[in-house]
Design a protein that fits this description.
alpha/beta; Four Helix Bundle (Hemerythrin (Met), subunit A); Rossmann fold; 3 domains; 49% helix
Length: 440
């Protein structure tokens, strides 16, 4: 994640430097509208760039997952770049609107910066004639993006509207591309910033169309049928076992897959079964409108589409480990316990399973697997026991700096643990590994 942040900041710095080369007079200018013209271009170019990268990250490409070390990290970068891009879009809109409002209220008149028509070639004249269209389509795209951002981030919105909002964002983005390309300053044409902006616009448009036409994940889809189901009522969790077809080439412990039931949208779930199993097992907790009552809707022999596997939560089993699972995050550790079962493993591993309410049958299975894998298990029911903290972990395990930490669970839980680990001088960047699958 740190490498990704550095690269993104480097790209922003590069674009900023190329922009400043085209606007060297700004720091000696007292003309508000000269600043306005330049800042409209700057904020618009950066906004387009960040939104273009956001579109690329949404393609679920293997190269992106490898670079960011996991699809969950790619989604987090996707989310914050999208927010950043729209925030810059707001700044772009304000730079355009506020001086106009000032003029309307009696302030000084201003020049629109379009340049004299007589100095333009036929091509430039044609592009200049599209300015009004470009401004209009950009404004509508901007308003649409604002609405869709609220829908995407508002937790009360159900999954289907959330997915639809992301689909429509591709359309809004294409509106912004048309607006941005047609309204680039003529002074920028033929310069590095012009070509870089066109590259981001082109690649982002390809990504947007890729998403709109349903190509995301298509090459990674496999047919499967439901082999069995089981429900753990105390944990409000369903066990789903699928039999994939021959195109499925296996998975590693800690990975996940998207499951599509009938005409429903695909949803991500962690694979619980070991990498050597011929069947795929999932633990699906009732957490939203889709998963609620899923165990009643899914029947044996139902067809299911599996897309994946994804994820890079890879366990380095050459070092002592501390595993922490929050709620349904235990699924990732089931898979690695299956992998360790029966092996001559002398490595010290402590697994802390934290859940608000636990199911006896599920915990019995977990105890059995942990015993066979030689893993020390602690089960913490937060309905009756204090929440897990690093002080308790240290009292049981000793010096925390001797361990690799692996976490899978709620993001708030992870943030609390990392903050507490800071007091132990723990190297979070190198020795804290997590999978945080937050869709919004």
């Amino acid at each position: 994640m740190k490498t990704a942040r550095n690269i993104i900041w480097a790209v922003i710095a590069t674009m900023s430097a190329f922009w400043f080369v085209m606007e060297p007079q700004l720091f000696t200018s007292n003309n508000v509208f000269e600043w306005r013209s330049a800042m409209i271009q700057y904020s618009g170019i950066l906004s387009l760039m960040l939104m273009s990268i956001t579109m690329i990250l949404a393609m679920r490409l293997p190269v992106v997952e490898n670079w960011l070390n996991g699809m969950d990290k790619a989604y987090r970068v996707h989310k914050w770049l999208g927010i950043g891009g729209i925030a810059l879009g707001v700044a772009h809109w304000l730079w355009y609107q506020i001086p106009k409002w000032m003029v309307m209220s009696g302030g000084p008149a201003h020049h629109d910066g379009s340049g004299p028509a007589g100095n333009l070639s036929a091509w430039e004249m044609w592009v200049n004639g599209l300015r009004e269209f470009a401004q209009s389509i950009g404004e509508w795209g901007f308003y649409l993006l604002l609405v869709l951002l609220v829908v995407s981030l508002w937790a009360a919105v159900k999954y289907k509207p959330f997915k639809l909002s992301h689909h429509l964002m591709s359309i809004a983005y294409l509106f912004i591309v048309v607006h941005s390309v047609l309204l680039l300053k003529h002074a920028y044409w033929g310069e590095p910033i012009y070509y870089l902006t066109l590259v981001f616009a082109f690649v982002g448009s390809i990504a947007a169309l890729y998403s709109l036409f349903g190509f995301v994940g298509r090459r990674n889809r496999h047919s499967a049928v439901v082999a069995s189901t089981r429900y753990f009522p105390q944990a409000e969790t369903m066990e789903l076992v699928l039999k994939p077809n021959a195109s499925w080439r296996g998975h590693k412990a800690g990975q996940f897959a998207y499951l599509r039931f009938g005409d429903e949208d695909p949803h991500p779930f962690t694979i619980v079964s070991g990498s050597d199993d011929s069947e795929l097992r999932f633990l699906i907790k009732e957490l939203g409108d889709f998963t609620a009552g899923l165990y009643e809707r899914v029947k044996i022999d139902d067809a299911v589409t599996v897309e994946g596997p994804y994820g890079r939560l890879e366990f380095d089993l050459s070092k002592p480990q501390i595993w922490i699972a929050g709620g349904v995050g235990i699924a990732s550790f089931f898979a690695v316990l299956e992998a360790l079962k029966g092996e001559a493993n002398h490595l010290q591993v402590d697994l802390f399973y934290c859940s608000r309410g636990v199911d006896d049958n599920l915990v019995d299975e977990l105890w059995s697997l942990a015993h066979q894998a030689g893993v020390r298990l602690s089960v913490i029911d937060t309905m009756h026991s204090p929440r897990l903290n690093t002080e308790r972990i240290a009292s049981q395990c000793g010096d925390l700096n001797d361990y690799e930490f692996y976490f899978c669970g709620p993001e708030v839980f992870s943030k609390t643990l990392k903050k507490e680990l800071g007091t132990y001088q723990f190297n979070i960047e190198q020795s804290y590994h997590e999978e945080l699958f937050v869709m919004r």
